Amino acid sequence: MSTTGVINAPIRTLVVDDDFRVARIHAAFVERTDGFEVAGVAYGAEQAMAVMDELKPDLVLMDVYLPDGDGIGVARGIAERHEHPDFIIITAARDVNTVRAAMQVGAVHYLVKPFGYQALRDRLVSYRDLRTRMAALGQDQEADQSEVDALFGLLRGPAALPTEPPPPKGHSAPTLELVRNAVRGAGADISAAEVAEQVGVSRPTAQRYLSYLAQHGVVRLQLKYGATGRPEHRYSLAADRGSLGG
Fold first, then answer.
1. Among 228, 165, 215, 219, which Cα is nearest to 192's?
2. Which domains does the chain have, with CATH numbers?
């Protein structure tokens, strides 16, 4: 991990995914996170190698299943070089062999698809904090055991804490994130119909996502009674979740 001049410079990040829609979403997540910028996007192993040689990113969000190769194999080949980026493995693969292979190539994180912005943000922030801490220490300074433990602990940081729930089966992680952001950005309580209009989904769809978020304590459901006596469901971000998101 090269940390020269990283305290103020954005962390240049390469996004590698064979699905251009997923790559676009992940790139948008990176751009939303303070201290990061997208250096480029690649859709295959060969293209990823070429882009890394050309752009020399600091960090790579590496998919495993690529049309012309294996993302972990790409990471392994690059990691053998003296100067190389760090890797966050982003994949649908859940088998232990793939997880072990990612650890063996020195991946700083392993994130299972699908996920929302918060899950990626937590891992990016922990990586950013680690780079900042190491840059402040200096390359020639010796670290005692407590400092080493603190550095390794930074990677576990917020990513080890419970954040937002994963999307339920049959639901979209990006849509779940958009619904949560609509509630967060409302500034006050908001109805399912208002969320639906903002996100661009039907009211029943918005209601399903909101109910799921309420069940997991991410949003708070309030019943407001009008003249008809029939309560209206209103949603607001739960008080203990106000710091989520970027």
1. 219
2. 11-160 (3.40.50.2300), 173-241 (1.10.10.10)
Query: In this structure, what token pair is assigned to residue 214?
Result: 């309420």
Tens digit of pLDDT for each residue in 107-129? Answer: 999 998 888 898 899 899 889 98
pTM: predicted TM-score of the whole model, two decimal places: 0.60
Amino acid at site 131: R
**192-199 and 203-215 helices, crossing angle to 10°:** 110
Q: How confident is the model at residue 38 (pLDDT cuts 50, 70, 90)?
A: very high
User: Which residues, including other chains, have CB under 8 Å from residue 145's CB and lie 6 or more apart?
Assistant: none
One-letter amino acid of 178: L
CA distance 144 to 8: 26
The answer to whether the beta carbons of residues 39 and 21 sit under 8 Å apart is no
Could you tell me which residues come within 8 angstroms of residue 144 by beta carbon, excluding any fewer than 6 positions away? Answer: none
Cα 199 off chain centre by: 20
